[in-house]
Description:
By secondary structure, the chain is of the alpha/beta class. It contains 46 helices and 24 strands. The strands form seven sheets. A five-stranded antiparallel beta sheet has the order 5-6-10-8-9. A four-stranded mixed beta sheet has the order 1-2-4-3, covered by helices on one side. Helix 7 (188-197) packs across helix 8 (199-214) and helix 34 packs across helix 45 (960-967). The relative contact order is 0.07. Residues 1002-1008 have low confidence and may be disordered.
Amino acid sequence: MSTPVPGASLDGLVTALRAGTDAEVRFDPGSRGAYSTDGSNYRQVPLGVVVPRSVAAGARAVELCSRFDVPVLSRGGGTSLAGQTTNTAVVIDWSKHCDALVSVDPEARTCVVEPGIVLDELNRRLAGLRLQFGPKPSTHSHCALGGMIGNNSCGASAQAYGKTVDSVRRLDVLTYDGVRMRVGPTSQAARARIAAEGGRRAELYDGLDRIVTEYLADIRRGYPKIPRRVSGYNLDSLLPENGLDVAKALVGSEGTLVTVLHAELDLVPVPPYESLLVLGYDDICRAADDVPRLLEHCSPGQLEALDGRMAELMREEHAYLDSLRALPQADSWLLVQFTGDSQEDVDAQAHALLKAIGRSEKEASVAFSDDPRREQEMLRAREAGLGVTARPPDDRETWEGWEDSAVPPERLGDYLRDLKGLFAEFDYDHPSLYGHFGQGCVHTRIPFGMKTADGVADFRRFVERAADLVASYGGSLSGEHGDGQARGELLTRMFGERLVGAFGELKALFDPGNRMNPGKVVDPNPVDGQLRLGAEWRPAAPRTHFGYPEDDHSFTRAVMRCVGIGNCRGLHGDVMCPSYRATREEEHSTRGRARLLFEMLDGHPDSAVKDGWRSTEVRDALDLCLACKGCKSDCPTGVDMATYKAEFMAHHYAGRPRPAAHYSMGWLPLWAHLAERAPELANSVLQAPVLGRTGKALAGVDGARRPPVFAERSFVRWWRALHTGQPDLADPATVVLWPDTFSNHFHPAVAMSAVRVLEDAGFAVTVPDAPVCCGLTWISTGQLATAKRVLRRSLRVLRPWLDAGTPIIGLEPSCTAVFRSDAPELLPGDQDVRRLVRRTRTFAEQLVHHAPAGWQPPFLARQATVQTHCHQHAIMKFDADRELMRRARLDADVLDEGCCGLAGNFGFERGHHEVSMAVGELGVLPAVRAAAPDSLVLADGFSCRTQIEQGGTGRRALHLAEALALALDGPLPSDRPERLARRPAEPSGTARWAATAVAGTLTGAAALRAVRHLRRP
């Protein structure tokens, strides 16, 4: 075990790091809390975090840590499942800045990378050369190559390309005591040259020679001859027949021996063609039994498996249903992917296998596809395993701990039967079994009792028994995720005392002071030590505003949804997490914020985060959360950080002043209602040259933002002027159009257009005759008591229609999402809310699913660039909108570029403008700029339309209702068709200066009166 670090040494180190490295040096409580755990069951609060801006700076940080005798932990994506990337050490996070593709040699099919580059990003940069890095774990969207090397990662594609170790040519490494060297295969001549040079490097190679010589027979006999042996150090790579390959020996050492600075990697061609064969079986054990027979007749690129339990969980969670529908009839499945140089080749491989095993594509239990989109749909079901099994609907929390064992593929079926027997013996119900069956690797998550002493004791007894079981099959404790703390203590059960002793000698050779990621692999912490939960975990159980009905009405359980998968660190696709994409900061990822909230609950005495709801560290981390709700749908475990943020702010600011923006934008519906009396004056004042700037400063609005323009006449006023009666409540054609603040006061043309299209479809439209609001702005600023009052008042207005079953049609996605999601969590027992959830529909849902038979939307017949509002993506989904656009003959390019960056009040708040625009520039704004002049730009969200207009795109976005209403009048113009839409006019320069002059006169008069008052005797 490592020795404690004196406080004086740590203070001196911090000073030295700040003075001597080009790095972000963070020893603050927030950073330490955000890095306190990874994707595993373990938790160790780090000493601090260093984020180097270059590889040289990272190497310098290691040198300084060594000078002060402080432990070091290198970290990439932080997704490790065995506790490798959590430690009481200085964490060096390479992922933010050290992510370069240094060089590529297309002819040799090699590249050199820095350790922080993300796998998907590497492959994206290589795509033009039709090359890729072969191993592809399920975390490919956010795992770093340095982490893959440290872990010896694999993934489904390892069936074809092997483990990471099989693709590493050379490494540029640094030892804790300062030796930097380039290592790889070592010829006899090179070995002699190193010996002649002398020094610490020669000492290391002499030590390697000694270990290999002493343990030669043990190494040759003691390593399982299976494709997925990841446990233990790779001493077999040092054997003479393997060329004394020091690089490969260091792969999988989990940061316990050296720091990796650069890696030279082998690349493989991107397969031009693929096909997928899915074979169904009665149960997962029979599927495993068939693996050897399949491998006798084919050489697949992947051979994956999933069982009926996972399919059951997907159905219960309403997740990946399209993937399930693509699978053939069965209870378990093997997915066999073929690659080749032509479509005929990959199709022939699949059909040849079917013929060889006596099965037919015509069978209900067989599915074949050579359509890449359908293939990915089916493979997504398998890749989603970790997230789907993490939080089963039956509330039995599942955990890592025995999640990636591996055995010889020919013995897999029997191993699974014995493993299921062990589950039954410990009353662990029936965990899902899935994984990389072509290489004998099994994934699962088990409902260990991690909160009680008895549960933890059972956990320990189970993994000890399971380790003995897998060793009896000639297998590996880990077939993919590594040893870390989860399996380090169990290695003797697999390798025996002598080989584990050799591991210790290797550790002592490279890291004699045990300062490199101590307590992992060698001299390991106990398998049941430093648990994230544990028998002594005592979190607070705070009273909350939201009900958290899907989390047993517990904020603590809601926060625990995050299990560290890290999808929120992905850089492309979906919505989650825009603030991380803009800042590349762990604290600004969904995972980092969840970690801080977990620490805030004060379940452990050593938590870095104190002060509970008053914590400034949590407040600062949540400040850049856009509350986009992307995580609610994109996070595999359904973390809803927008809700947690609102909850936190409600408590954090309770009984004390709030930021000015909470009063200005949080109460926007009220200010908009008041401005309705004199919108021209309000617009002139808000945009007056001096007065406007002063007003923005006082209101907490960023000076770079233009305030939105109030409409000359609100939608409700327009409606009341034209409509005096109400449709019959009993008429099934009656619909209530919800007059949200944005469609009512800022873009009334949206609501007017919706009325016109709905009436064209045969609906009788009505609008509430009393002021109503969904409470969105109060929710997003954490003013939840006010939000509840506003909601209840609106529910009273809507009650007659709710009782009659009348649909409520929402136009603004964020307001519609409140009715579908936030309202039932804020008022979980309210019957009117439950009726509202059932009655609320989007504009597109009403027209697609409920319009009279035979009605067709007007034809638009042109291209459209479409931005989906984040709340719609997360809550209502976009299927109905896609279908409505299809019927309108729109060739819609629905962007998959994430959040627009404005996100309601977020982008207007002081200090957020830079991040807001950075998020927009990640994809949405460039896509709009690239849109053809004759195409439509559609965005149903007011925030999205505002960001597009203010983001230098030269375009103005329309609501889909506006586009359809315009089409009712005939063909749209060929150039910038949005110019036909009605938008409030900006106040003239004269009006703006007049407002300033009036304000100045009034201010001067008030000052003069004050002076006279003071001069009175």
